[in-house]
Structure formats: structure tokens, C-alpha cells
Amino acid sequence: xxxxxxxxxxxxxxxxxxxxxxxxxxxxxxxxxxxxxxxxxxxxxxxxxxxxxxxxxxxxxxxxxxxxxxxxxxxxxxxxxxxxxxxxxxxxxxxxxxxxxxxxxxxxxxxxxxxxxxxxxxxxxxxxxxxxxxxxxxxxxxxxxxxxxxxxxxxxxxxxxxxxxxxxxxxxxxxxxxxxxxxxxxxxxxxxxxxxxxxxxxxxxxxxxxxxxxxxxxxxxxxxxxxxxxxxxxxxxxxxxxxxxxxxxxxxxxxxxxxxxxxxxxxxxxxxxxxxxxxxxxxxxxxxxxxxxxxxxxxxxxxxxxxxxxxxxxxxxxxxxxxxxxxxxxxxxxxxxxxxxxxxxxxxxxxxxxxxxxxxxxxxxxxxxxxxxxxxxxxxxxxxxxxxxxxxxxxxxxxxxxxxxxx
Amino acid sequence: xxxxxxxxxxxxxxxxxxxxxxxxxxxxxxxxxxxxxxxxxxxxxxxxxxxxxxxxxxxxxxxxxxxxxxxxxxxxxxxxxxxxxxxxxxxxxxxxxxxxxxxxxxxxxxxxxxxxxxxxxxxxxxxxxxxxxxxxxxxxxxxxxxxxxxxxxxxxxxxxxxxxxxxxxxxxxxxxxxxxxxxxxxxxxxxxxxxxxxxxxxxxxxxxxxxxxxxxxxxxxxxxxxxxxx
Lengths: 407, 230
Fold this sequence. Notes:
The complex is a heterodimer of chains A (407) and B (230).
Chain A: H1 3-15, H2 18-55, E1 60-65, E2 70-71, E3 75-76, H3 87-96, E4 100-115, E5 118-127, H4 130-134, E6 139-142, H5 147-152, E7 156-159, H6 161-167, E8 177-180, E9 183-191, E10 206-210, H7 211-219, E11 226-231, H8 237-251, E12 262-266, H9 267-310, H10 312-320, H11 325-362, H12 370-396, H13 400-405
Parallel strand pairs in A: 5-10, 7-9
Antiparallel strand pairs in A: 1-11, 1-12, 2-3, 4-5, 4-8, 4-11, 6-9, 7-10, 8-9
Helix pairs in contact in A: 1-11, 2-9, 2-11, 2-12, 3-8, 9-11, 9-12, 11-12
Chain B: E1 6-17, E2 20-32, E3 37-41, H1 48-55, E4 63-68, E5 71-72, H2 78-88, E6 89-92, H3 104-113, H4 120-133, H5 149-161, E7 167-171, H6 179-196, E8 200-204, H7 207-210, E9 215-220, E10 223-229
Parallel strand pairs in B: 3-8, 3-9, 6-7, 7-8
Antiparallel strand pairs in B: 1-2, 1-4, 4-5, 9-10
Helix pairs in contact in B: 3-4, 3-5, 4-5, 5-6
């Protein structure tokens, strides 16, 4: 029999029992819609984490001290308070590195910032002027400090929006003097708002000052705590990491057998870590949704068995007027596939709508990917074939004599 | 022998029921010529149903020869039997066996759907013609539940005619109908036989139905006990 006729016959058979066909489809509809919506939520959150991490400066490289010393039974010394990074390292990187466009030392301290009667606990970050480029962080107001300010250890600072909100109620902060741990700083600029980072920290709760000022006037230390650098672009962060490692090992005069006394982290690594976490989330969500697809498939199988039994007489008749086993097999198989594919189409539409609604009402980011649509659609077709095959085969193997006499 | 519709020689059919062998047909022989209207009579247990199944190519004989329009049925596979039924036999059943919620026209088209050589236009033409032949040309789009029993059986007869079979095989085709309608249906069969020369084999247990035919073959205990022309 021609395929077109088969599809027509199957479609008619479904139309004879619309409610049942729809209820059978429902399992598939829910399954597909769930897969699409769940994957959309997973992908959406992955995308938004990536965007947030990129907002920190996607080609940023962070260098921290780390201990290469072990004491006794292999316990490593705590890395905090290590003094392995120095200004010499900065100079070496500036001079030798080819994959680095900017580099800045960093020292920081927690403390109380005071403006008149208002005070607020915050962090002061001592950096060089390049830091703002590395972090891709523009100013909202005022001007940035310069290399001269660094050289002179001037008591000037830039403040974040959270600090502004807490100690300058309605005032223009630029030009005002604030005190950080009793040291007076002149506010020369306000940083543009950055919001929370991927870890939930408020990036705007900060005071930025020349690192020399923080080193000398607040911490009284000669070394630096971190180094921030900027790779030429995102893709060269691996080369940049290797390069920095080489430069620092030489600068620290480490022997080939020594471990690094610092660690280099790139933003790309962080993105990968978070991506793989949310990838796992996506897979889990998809797996749960996939189970409901299987349940839907079992529903199809169940109904197809009922349908075959119910229509035994029809099968007998069709066989007696010349339907071969194959014709009957295809008739029922196509019916099952029609159910699953129609369900799949409705499910895709419903899944996309559900994703939109989630974004609209909960403002969760969602991302409907074409691959998830293709995948669930294919799973549907396979489900139809797989779960439809056995009932169809049962139908095709009926003995026409007995099928005709079936009551 | 070539122009015979049916040629049956020493036909046997045995069923194994556990350890026992039931011999439903014990050597039946008869021929049917084109244009004959034959009734096969017999009470239950006479082997009538087994005979019907074999004549209808739904079952194969255990032994003996059955030639349908010159084709040796005993040698065919399941699929070949299906094709043979499609091309050479028109079934009419006691319970009409029409597809529910399917129009008369579509019910009649059904056998031609399983014949890939026939286009959809030809299918429709022949179905309309068959329905006109059973005087239901004005009921093409009626569903079975909108038709009376007699009308439903006439749709079934149209379905049996549509593939232009060499033989119409009717199984108690009046069994579900009242006496008057039965006679109408039998008159229709008679008309198809006499005016259009259709070969009809009618299986029944009612003697007064047999009176419409030109020849009656009576079975008992798996054997032909009487074969006479009316």
C-alpha cells in the first residue's frame, strides 16, 4: 500500500477516537515540553553565568601567591600572608610578556570608611591605573588616578556605587574627603555600577586607591598580594598563563624541581568550571524530562495494545480483503508515530511558550536551543517507532480467521 | 479445467488439538464453473466453516488440491494468499464488517487501497459504480450507523464487487437480517449472478436461502453428501 494511503488511514483511525488520541499524546506533549523548558532553563542560567563572568573582564588573569613549602608530613602552609609576589614580578611581566596587554599589582584591606557622620565597612583595593582597563571598568563621574599619584602615594581614591549610597546620601562625592581607617582620601571619581559578580559579591562595595598608598599608609607592607593582568584576547589566555608562569619562575629563581610558589587563574577557567556545573544541571533536568518521555512512550504502547485488541475484527476484515501482514504492521506503526510526532509538535510549541512564561513571570533567563528541539523531536519519533512496533507486530501476526471471528 | 473458477480434488483438512487429530474435511471434490451460483449447506460440525476458510484462501488444505482460477492455493505463502484474496475474492460476511465511522464510499474503496496498481481516481470511480450496482448510489457519504441492516449488507456486497473478483464468497450473509430483507439481499445476489454473470459461492445452513441458488452442495461430517442443481 502507498505510504500516503497508510498515513491517511492512520489519521482517520485517530480521528475516530479523538479524545483517546489526545490523552495518549498528552504523555508525549508533557515530556517534550518538559525537556525543552528544562533545557532552556539550564542553558539560560549557563549563559547568564557566562555573561556575569565575562563582565568581570573575560580575558582577566589573576595571579596569587601559593605555598610550595611543605612542613613535616606533607601539610602545606596556608597561602594567606605569603609574600612571594613583588613589584619585581610586575616589572618582569611588563618587560617580557607578549600575550599581556596590561598588568596591575593589588593589595587590599578591610576597613571602615567615614564621611562626616556616616560610616560603612568596605574593602580598599590598592592598584595601578591599568587595573580599570583590566577589569573593563569605566568611571561614572570624575577622573581616574594616574601613575604620578602612584609614584607619590597620593591619598586619592575612586569609590563604588554602594559606598556612595551608604555614606553620601544625595551629595556629590567627587572632591570630598573621606577617611579610611582614619587616613583621609580625596574622592576623585565614582566607578560605574557593576552589580553582583558570579559569586554573589557586590562589586560596587569598594574603594580603589593607588597601591603605593595602600601599601605604605594602610598596610605598611613592601610586597604585593595579587597581580591582575589582561591577556590580548580570550583565546590567548592559555598562552598568557604559560608565559606568566615562565616569567615568574625565572623571577623567583625556582629550580626545575621546585613547585610554583604562585598560581595563575584565568577567567576562562572559571567560566569552564561554572559551565560544567550548569552543564551537569542541564543534563540532570533533561534526564528527568526524558523519563517523562519514556513514560509517554509506554502510554502509547499501552493504548496501541488496547487499540489492536479492540480492532481485531477490523484487522481480520482488512486481511480478508487483501491486507498483508506488512500493511497492517505499517498501519498501526504509523498510527503510533502520528501520535508521538503530533504530540511532539504540540510539546515543542508548549515548551517554548513555557520558557517564555518563565522568563516573563520569574525573570529567569531561558535559552531555547535548536538542538534541544531537534533532539526531543527525534526522541519522539523513535519513541513512536519503538513503543508502537510491538503492538503493530502483534496486529500483523493475527490469524485472519480468528480475527474475523473475534467478538 | 482452465475455465473453471474452482477446482477442488480430494481436499482434506486436519487440525491437531493436543494429542488428538480432528479431521474437519475428509476428501472433498467439486468444481465450480464461471457464472454459477452455488450454496454450500451443512449443519454445524459439517466442515462448512473449514471449507469456507479454505475457499476464501484464509486457510490452506492439509492435503488435496484447490485451484482458484487456475492458481494452486496450497503452494502459496501468507503474503501471496493476501494478494490472491485481494485480486480474486470478494467476501460478504454475516456481520457486514463495515468500518465504523467511515463512509459507505470509503468502506467500498478499502480493498482497492491494498492494490497499489489502482490510482485514487480509478478507486473512487469503481467504488461509486459498485455502490450504484447495489442501488446505493445516493448513499455514498452515509456512515454505517446511518444505514439499515439491509443497506449495510448491500454496502458490504459493493465492497465485494469493487475489486472485480472471480468469485463472491458469502458467509451466512443473511444471518443478521429479517426474512424480508434476507430475500431482498438474495434477490440482489441472484441479479448479480444472472445479469452480470458473477460467480457466487454462498455458505449457509438455511435451506430456503439455498433455493435462490442454481446448485446446492451439502456437507456432512467433512464429506459431500449431496450435490445437485436446483
